[in-house]
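Researcher: Re-running this chain for the archive, since the previous output was lost when a drive failed. Same request as before.
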Amino acid sequence: MNSTGLPPKGFSQALASLERRTALILGGHGELAAAIAAGLADRGANIVLSARKEAACADLAAQLADGFGVTAIAVACDIGEEDQVRDAVQRAAEVSGRLDILVNNAGASWSGAPQDIPLSGWRKILDVNLTGSFVAAREAAKLMLPTGKGAIIFTASTGGFTSFMPEVAQIVPYTTSKAAVVHLTRDLAAQWGEAGIRVNAVAPGQMRSGLTLTVPEDRIEAIRHGIPMKRLGEPVEIAGAVAFLASDAASYVTGQTLIVDGGLTLG
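Model: Regenerated structure tokens:
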């Protein structure tokens, strides 16, 4: 505070800054990952992108380094493999000697009538979306706990808060896993809060990215009609939410799931 009792000029920019921090993004390619990575890099963070498709991550890393002047690298990782997740976290920490931010954007889905879902399919989705999230957070926390600070951000989904009639969607393993991620966020926040690690999640609604782009146009129109804002979300609108949760602007926010859905879950 200055003599007027107000914070000093520039305090809000300082809170938003991610300069000299390192962020690991799992599920590190595609429209949403690119927007999230750009949002963090634009605030000064060094970026480590990790996924099974290392070449796609490497291409995005090169664009980030060129466009934002940060260090950006790619690391191969299957989030369903514990050893690979551990290695990705360690590689990320080597960039600057510590890991400040973990964004788990990796995810998978399975579509079909519940009575027809094989146990192997159920396990695959839970392994990626839930168990992978836990393993990544666990490994990141091992590095963050000694520093007394860190931000872990999961990608949940509005599907974790809603249920679908079969004519709308049949993705029970996905929605179940995302609901569990919401609670995992709360549990880990409670466990690590005193140690200075904040754990939050973002829950995107219908975005102009990923699987939504494969939906027929008439179905897209029906989706738009059900959204109070009458449009799909843009990936950059998720990027803003993630950047906020990663920064000191959210220093007193933990255990929360920030729903970014244009009002879809209001009704």
